[in-house]
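Homework-ish question, so no full write-ups if that breaks the rules, but can someone show me the predicted structure for this set?
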Amino acid sequence: MCQTNDSGIIGHVKDGVLVKVEGDPDCPPNHGRLCVKGLSSPFMPANPSRVLKPLKRTNPEKGIGVDPKWQEITWEEAYDIIVPRMKKIREEDSRKLMLSTFDYPPIFLAIPWCIACGSQFYVGAATWCGWYHNACYQYYLSFFREADYENTNYLILWGTQSGHIVDALPVSSAKKLADARVRGARIVVIDPVATPAASLADEWVPIRPGTDGALALCFANLLLNEYSLYDREFIKARTNGPYLVGPDELYIRDPETNKPLVWDGAEKRARPFNQVEPEHMALEGEYVVNGITCRPGFHILKKHLKKYSPETVSEITTIPEKDIRRIAREFGEAARIGSTTVIDGVTLPYRPAAILTGRGASAHRHAMHTVFAMEVLNVFVGNVNVPGGVLGIATNYTRRWGVTEDEDGIALSPNSTYWHFYGALDTYPARPVSKPQTYTLLDLCPVATYTDGLFPLAMTDPKRFGLDYDIEFLIVAHTNPVASYINPGEMVEQLKKINFILGFATEWNEVMELCDVVLPNSHWTERYDPIANPPFKFEAVGYHDWYWFFRRPMIAPPTPEIKHWFEILLDLTERAGFLKEFYEAYNEHNCIRKPYRLDPAKKHSYLEICDAVMQDRYGVSVEWYEKNQTNVCVQKKTVDEAFPGPFVPGRYNIYMEYWKRAGEEVKKVVTDMGIEDIWETDDYVPLLEWKPCSSFEKRNEYDLIAVNYKAACHTFSNTTHNPLLLEIGHTYPWIYGIQINRETAEKKGIKDGDEICVESEFGYSVKGTAVITEGIHPECIGTVGACGRLSFGEKVGRKVGVHWNTLVGQTLERIDKMSSSLDGCVRVKIYKA
Amino acid sequence: MIRWGMVIDLKRCIGCQSCTMACKTQNGTPPGIFYRKVLEQISGQYPAVRRVYLPTQCMHCENPPCVESCPAGVFSKRADGIVLLDSDKCYGARVCRIACPYNAISFLEKMPTYFPDTVTPIEAIWYENHTVGTAGKCDFCADRLDQGLKPACVQTCPTDAIKFGDLNDHQSEVSRLIKERKGYQLHSEWGTNPSVYYLS
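A: Not a homework solution, just the prediction itself:
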């Protein structure tokens, strides 16, 4: 279960067996609703692939589909193998240990554990999920965001099926989007594939993969230069658009205060931004300040956008010029710039038009530019964190945190202080750059949210990236980097280099079969997750109450020794002698205040540890939930918490001056390292650009692009071992088949139902059943991602559907060096198998 | 007198199959047995492609052809309009499957399992109520209704696409929706008068 963070769930148990789960009718925001994946989960605790005993590998050969020849061992024997290794590696060089997990509820424990241990952290899965994409959430001052479906009238879903049971907050957003549809909101979906979201929408706009950035900049050009549909007041008051920029592309600063200068139209001179009323700030014009010719960043951006004309961009994207113009105008007009609405007696800006983008649009080379180009459109119409627009999640939880601003007046998300322990880093301000210390090469990417996708690249040639140690010990729990990222063979080659891999397994998957020792792990229905929806991250937006879930076990684990993997890790930690350090790191990293801090001198249970964060964050204890026998704590949300836009300080970056500065730092470091030839820095420019990714050019016979999409019944590789979901998946042919446009198929003589082979330019291939459709761009083929499981021990999901990821090779040229995104457009050829 | 009925709003349905799964886990049906299905229809030419999802199930007809068709008297109609199937009486004639114009009756020919060669503990419990050689279908979750709950599909639907209520009550949400949004029945010309309505 990836993100069941908007669903209270109750279980029904008969004779000790979980026979059914359903949504908790008393629980917001799902109110009894539950999605297909959640409903299917009772099938998994007692599935025959369940790992029940500690196991040791006896076959030294590791590979996809290779039998590890497991030997059962006792828990003590397992600890005797693991603990001395853990101790030794901590004495030698703790960086050689890596913990990898995508188990959301305990991630706030995992990162302090890494700090205490001195090891490094790697998410390992969901590398396509949106790591790059999250960078633009700085506009909403949150880790995540959602459209205000309840108030919007015009919604563009761009490379995402949000609201269709495939994104975070799946259930609550589906309800809100359905309400919006019935209410008459217009929904436009831009996507190479007519996904359910696209073909149920008012309009599907097929786009050539990898060209979304060009379309976004063209929309921006039309809004700013042709239609004059942009929120001038907002741009003056809440963006860095008025800041004056010199010929060196940097801000012109006040010599005394070092504050960026703006042109004060009333006084006809340049003054520090914080001394000028926004209404007097010039957005356009050329000025001379202290002998330097300068212009507002907005002015430069506006002129720069002119090159993205509808004529040019139509050719790039294959979208007709008239449609590009119409959609830009519709969006700009629907935003009702200048209008207000009254909610509970509070007058707020009203901008009922929103663009929601997804990783589908952004997983490209030059991803950073693309995501910002798309999402800055929301800023141009001033819809950020106001009714009808796009709302950050828990941006402004006034009981515990709020937004601040830095010396340059740029808004700082509370993420930087309060939420970063979930591993999501803020993308402003830029972090210091240095020779990489970790195998995710984070130190080379100062404005990225995550760089976990770079792990296999670093493993390929660590010395080239200045890594003078090897990863020798990997701990893996609830994550599957083998099935869910690049070609599994490429990933396995890298993981094979690690001496010792410890896995916590509920059932078999591709990465567990590479482990040296496997310990059984509890299923989520058997464990406590006192913080089931990380309360700083996934909360349904809008003017509803805050809700903090508490998940308790529905059934007992198969044997009493089988516990939550993090509890087992704490046992190992105690034996390895750094439990005290863990408590200290936990207190510090989670910013826990007295009196909730853990006493490092005492031993604390898993529930006690979680209790500290719960009490500190939302003032509710484990005891409270247990006493009230409830799944949820509800707290009243205020208008300024629901729509923080006008209530929080700070400006948003539309002229990316900080990229320019960060790029100079990166350039220095990579030049010192001697890798400037492979680690280019030319994307670190202050003006948003579109550049073609490598798949843009047709190459020889590789005439198509393989893209992937999600289906409501699957979450990456995490659900394809559940036979109930597999059965459901078979009901729609596009889930396990390969979609091809009818005209394209006719040209190639491929008929519906033919077995075909898809071969990528990397020489990798997959087979599958052709599904001929009108619902895909003629230059593409499409499949669901991460089906077609390859695990030796998998009983039901093996080779069901297509493993799209198999087609993808990771090469340096295909990586966006700013965001770490690997290009998701893969050039392929197809032929009958 | 109550007449239970359902209104399925196709403008809301996104084809996610949560209702199908809720039905499956509520009724504990074996592999291949579905008391409700969501059909998908894709139409139009690139790029004007449209998709419609059509959830189907027992229509709980006022004049149910299944009742008359069955030689064993398996089917009965409750006073509240629910058409019940008593599988204990069923000997597998399967005439009902031909009689039902909505293809809503399933038949358990054999008892497969979801994992190869294994009956999992959940399946051992689930399949207690299912007998090989008998028919099965949706009963509007009559047991849940009797407990004051909504049918499982209605409760779980993430988009609120399935509304449930009393068709005889003109003030009920279902009656109001049928009136306001011109709800229609599938193949009303057959005179079955289903209790399931659709909104487009």
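Now go work out the reasoning yourself. Hint: Chain B has a mean pLDDT of 97.
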